[in-house]
Amino acid sequence: MPPRWFLFLAAVGVVIINLVVFVAFWPPPAPPPDASPAQRLYFAHCVTCHGPSGNGSWRATLFLMRPGDLSDPRRTQALSDEYLFDIVKQGGAPIGKPGMPAFGFYLPDAEIQDLVRFLRALPRKE
Question: Is residue 93 part of a domain?
Answer without folding.
Answer: yes
